[in-house]
Each structure stands twice: as C-alpha cells, then as structure tokens.
Amino acid sequence: MRLAATEYGRFLDVLRSLSPEDWTRPTDCPAWDVRQMAAHCLGMAELAASPQEGARQNEAAHRRGGVFIDALTGLQVEERRDMTPDELIRRYAEVGPL
Q1: How far apart are CA 31 and CA 55, in angstroms?
Q2: Distance from C-alpha of 1 to C-alpha of 32, rounded to nearest angstrom
Q3: Kindly report the CA angle at 79 between 57 and 7, in degrees rounded to 5?
C-alpha cells in the first residue's frame, strides 16, 4: 500500500503539471492521447479501490468479448471520455490512496 500510495501521488503530480496542450499529445499507445491515457489510469485506480467497481468493470469487459485487457482498458477510456482534464485530476486525487 505504501508503494501504491507513492505511485498514485507521483502520477497525480504529473497530471497536475500538464499544460492544456499536453493533454492532446500522443502516447506510446497509438490509439490514445494523454487525456485518454489518464482516463484509463483513473479507471484502473477506481477498479483497484473498490471491489464493487472492479467487479462491474470486469463483467462489462467480459461482455464486450475479444482480448480481455483491451476490452477493459477500452471501457475505462470510453466511460471517462467526457471528463475534462480538471475532472480527471480531481477524481484521481479522490480515488488514490494518498
């Protein structure tokens, strides 16, 4: 838990340091820009923080079919597609074990 808290805190610091232009930059995942990667990371943090949310995401990803990890991460990005960078940061700060 101590290591996870450190990781969450460092990632939150990075999110807070991004300029508006940074959020639309590409990542090593060709289908996702920085905002979408942050949405995925938030989704994974929410999955880890709540057994109920983890079960919900897992069930939804299984229903999608295909490669499970692709279905899961795609779900996380899609469910947070309308969140602004400020909303992503605020929610990440709430869910992380800081």
Answers
A1: 26
A2: 28
A3: 70
What's the per-residue H, E or C state across 45-74? HHHHHCHHHHHHHHHHHHHHCCCHHHHHHH
Crossing angle, helix 2-17 and helix 85-95, to 10 degrees?
160
Report pLDDT for 78. Answer: 98
Q: What pLDDT is attached to residue 98? A: 55
pLDDT by residue (tens digit) across 27-40?
999 999 999 999 99
Rounded distance between C-alpha atoms, residue 31 and residue 95, angstroms: 25
User: Do residues 41 and 83 touch, judged by C-beta distance below 8 A?
Assistant: no
Instruction: Please give the structure tokens belonging to residue 23.
Output: 């959020």
- Which value, in Å, is the radius of gyration of the alpha carbons in the chain? 13
The token duo for 8 is 């969450």
Residue 36's nearest CA partner among 48, 46, 25 is 25
Q: How many residues does the chain have?
A: 98
Amino acid at 65: G
